[in-house]
Protein 1
Amino acid sequence: MRIKHRTQLRTKELRQLLEKLEEQPSLIHRVLRDSSSRKVSVERFILEDKSQLYFVDGELWLFTLQTQLIPGLPALIADNVQLPQVVVDMGAVPHIANGADVMAPGIVSVNNQLEVGNLSVVIDQKNRVPIAVGRMLLSPEGILASKKGRALETLHYVGDQVWKLAKELSEG
């Protein structure tokens, strides 16, 4: 992943970004919504593959995957962005941290408000720390009923390319 272009978002561009976020009802963003009352720095990095990373005050908040906005794990860990949660047992953590999809047997609990296609943050059961962001493949009822197969498609996880690039950019 290489950076092609870096720019500070202007007010109009920030408004457009907020409008896009409003289209994703499961995503709750804090500082961006209050940006009119507090000066925030929103920077956009455009990569060679046309994907975009959005940094708010030096921290990865969002990135694009195809056309969808995905929250960055640093913002989820800092609790600046929130998503409905899927909690997994500790046996699933190493697999998810290597990019595997979340399987139904590894899920301990799931937010009942989630629907198929919604974004969710994956939390480990012991430390309650976000380890991945994914898209629901099954409904909560389907997960609890089946207890087999893929339940969540992993889109972003600790240690992936986006995570590493965000770490590099925020450090210097």
Note: The mean pLDDT is 88.
Protein 2
Amino acid sequence: MVASALEKRLQDGVAAGRLKSSELKDNFTDVHPPLDKHEALVASDRCYFCYDAPCVTACPTSIDIPQFIREISTGNTTGAAETILEQNILGGMCARVCPTETLCEQACVRELAEGKPVQIGLLQRFATDDAMEQNKQFFERKPATGKTIAVVGAGPAGLACAHRLAMHGHEVTVYEARKKPGGLNEFGIAAYKTVDDFAQHEVDYITAIGGIDIKYNQPLGSKLNLQKLRQNHDAVFLGMGLSGVNALGLKGKEPVGVMDAVDFIAQLRQAKNKGKIAVGRRIVVIGGGMTAVDCAVQAKLLGAEEVTICYRRGQDQMNASPYEQELAATHGVVIRDWLQPQKLKTKAGSVSGITLEYTQMNKKKLVGTGEMITLAADQVFRAIGQTFGDENSNTLEDELKLDKGRIATNEEGATSLSDVWAGGDCTNSGDDLTVTAVAQGRDAAEAITKALSV
């Protein structure tokens, strides 16, 4: 019997070039188009400029939000950018990727009163984009201290730390494992959230202060030794993030077609031609966070026909915000909760489906019900949390105190070693967000400067 056209398409497996270049261009445009000047003035006029504003408390970097919005409303866009950047030097990226709907905008008085908050994220982007486009630099280096600090990782935490240390007059060497800086901002965020190579433009803007030297292809473990870093520098900051990904925990070797969501996202971010990225017809993403949503939505944007996110708990317990969940739904992604993977199906060495077990809560413990469902899939993505890579884990376990698999730190980022600080996703404190990493890197830099001045 001759297969129908639909059946044939579903049997085509994983392939590149499912959509025309014009379609891909439209699909990967900026998910949050910026405000123009008039729109920014209208949006800023809605702010009450609250005293003891709850939005400031909700911001991990404690930006004076009423102040910068007032500056926008009076036409002082440059002043607004300075107000933002003095607290968050990566304010441009955070304006694009922060879950503002669960942070500052959720706390906005307008949201509480009317269900429609001030557009804080877009206003922040309006101000910081203006400053970066005109290369307005607000911070100068203090006189040289003669101190040198090693920063491991050129991601949000490392860059924020390096900039603040350089501002205080220290010489900073950043050791980056990849051949390009940016960390999560460059490799781990959906392409439609940060277009036009913004992450690299922001790195250039940050390092323009001077006193920051970035060395590439320097992973901790194989090429970098923590003891030698401590010997060669006055202090060390660890901000290398998490390079490993949790496994599905299923028996047997994983077949072709099963891959990490973070690798898929990184491929998309680095691809000059997205049409060359292979994608399946029917895709299952295992996980419930931002990475799962970014992976699933982009698979749809590349031309996948059926994309399903499977999460082991209820949808209200997903780490992805309600906004991100809605974004997935509007792009045709199906979210199925209370499901955990049990077995991968294969055909000719490639994945052809996945069997999942329904779950439920029993006395506050997640348990399987024994009821199964099988979903057809020619690609399965893992998005179930990240860990240290083997090299980092082995290096750190021997020298640092860890807590739940991450570096244990105090509120200033100090570790169990007196001359080593840490921040960002590699630590055990705070949410795994760009803005949290920035705050931790900034605060660690202040703590390092205080310690070195004693």
Note: Residues 9-29+246-385 form a domain with the FAD/NAD(P)-binding domain fold (CATH 3.50.50.60).
Protein 3
Amino acid sequence: MINRHQLQAMIDFVEQKGLNETTLGELRQQYEGLHFTWCLDDDINFEHPVAEHQEFNVFLVDSRDHCSTLTKDAETASGVVFAEILED
């Protein structure tokens, strides 16, 4: 489960530090048990992000079953995807 305060703290942290593997590694240390992924926004085929930022969109991941899926349900979320937006 990821509550909205945690999610906002994660987003603020990425805004401050920049979206990169070092930042995600720090998030993994701060939020043990949660998974963090970085990809390109156009790699995601899901309705709407749970949060939008100028440089990235944020999606939640549900890994309860054998295959991870994107979700909007923070109660079942076990991870966060930061999807980087590249300018054309």
Note: The longest strand covers residues 56-62.
